[in-house]
Amino acid sequence: MNTYADIPQQWPENVIVVDAEYVDSVAFDLIVNFERMIGRHIPPADLPRWMDCIALDGGMKIADGDEGRKVETMVVMVTDGRTERLENFAPSHFATEINGKAFADNLGEFTFSVVSHEDLTTKAEMIADIAAMAITQKELRRLMIVPNADDAATLDLLRRTLRTVDDDKRITIFAMQPIAGGNFRQEILGYSLMNALGIRADEIK
């Protein structure tokens, strides 16, 4: 499994950092709850579609590519090193289907790296370290983070890491509930996951 050294050194203008096991567990909970509520099978979440939703919620626009330039987004999925795949997304296998892969659409090109936290650090610390590296990059315009927002210590660490971010960088943290304080924007994680799971608004009225 990749570690810090395997994160690409060329940072693009958009970076998405994801706690892989956490978002997988949230997707599972949504599938179970909504299958019961709407009475139909819900397939695994479409990973590229979810990335598009996160990007849009994080401030990216389709018009960003209208200048004729290539808009690039780096997605870093941080795992605990013990799991081989996402159980509730497709594609799912870290080594063969996600790491080193890319897709392109009307928001630009998304490239994936899968990294595991090393023995001397926690997953929360690794996510914070990646965020700290990203915000020092001159090219960075947007940083989107999907941490384990259920853990107060993780959120405190991110608040400290992001407290001095330059005003020209847009930072967005995704969580299932509103977060108190912090030098960043917030978006509700459930909305993007519901879209990627194909749950329609008219089904849950």
Describe the secondary-structure layout.
Blueprint: E1 14-19, H1 20-38, E2 45-46, H2 47-57, E3 72-79, E4 89-90, H3 94-98, E5 102-105, E6 108-116, H4 123-135, E7 142-146, H5 152-161, E8 170-175, E9 185-188, H6 189-196
Parallel strand pairs: 1-3, 1-7, 2-4, 3-6, 7-8, 8-9
Antiparallel strand pairs: 5-6
Helix pairs in contact: 2-6, 4-5
Care to describe what's here?
The protein has helices at residues 20-38, 47-57, 94-98, 123-135, 152-161, 189-196, and strands spanning 14-19, 45-46, 72-79, 89-90, 102-105, 108-116, 142-146, 170-175, 185-188. It is an alpha/beta fold. It is globular, with a radius of gyration of 16 Å. The mean pLDDT is 91.
Tally the beta strands.
9
Structural class: alpha/beta
Shape: globular
Strand order of the largest sheet: 5-6-3-1-7-8-9
Can I get a quick summary?
The protein is of the alpha/beta class. Helix content is 32%, strand content 22%. Strand 5 and strand 6 form a beta hairpin.
Features:
205 residues; globular; alpha/beta; seven-stranded mixed sheet; two-stranded parallel ribbon
